[in-house]
Design brief:
By secondary structure, the protein is mainly alpha-helical. It is built from four helices and no strands.
């Protein structure tokens, strides 16, 4: 059973990696990724919050930093949505392929 789980982990990692590579070929995903990275670089507080470095501290963010955080979250949500759609389509494709190979769908 452990071997099967390890093989599934490897398969899912390869599938995830492949889907990310496919997404990086699309202009919209690449633009969102680049812009999110730019915001993280310009506003290090974004990374600090995400990594939990400032979790025990009270922060007062400038309006500019708050706007950047909001835009960062929007970009990352778009990227996650794109990945979820890729997962869905991959599963749909795999399901149809399995039905065809098993002779249940011609």
């Amino acid at each position: 059973m452990q071997r099967i789980l390890e093989e599934m982990d490897e398969y899912l990692f390869r599938m995830y990696d492949g889907l990310l590579k496919e997404l990086m070929q699309t202009e919209s995903y690449r633009n969102d990724s680049d812009e999110a990275g730019r915001l993280e670089d310009k506003y290090p507080v974004i990374r600090q919050i995400l990594e939990g470095e400032v979790i025990q501290k009270e922060l007062v963010l400038t309006v500019e930093a708050q706007t950047a955080m909001k835009e960062f979250v929007k970009l990352r949500t778009n990227m996650q949505d794109d990945l979820q759609i890729k997962y869905y389509l991959r599963g749909f494709h795999d399901c149809i392929s399995l039905l065809i190979k098993s002779g249940m769908l011609n």
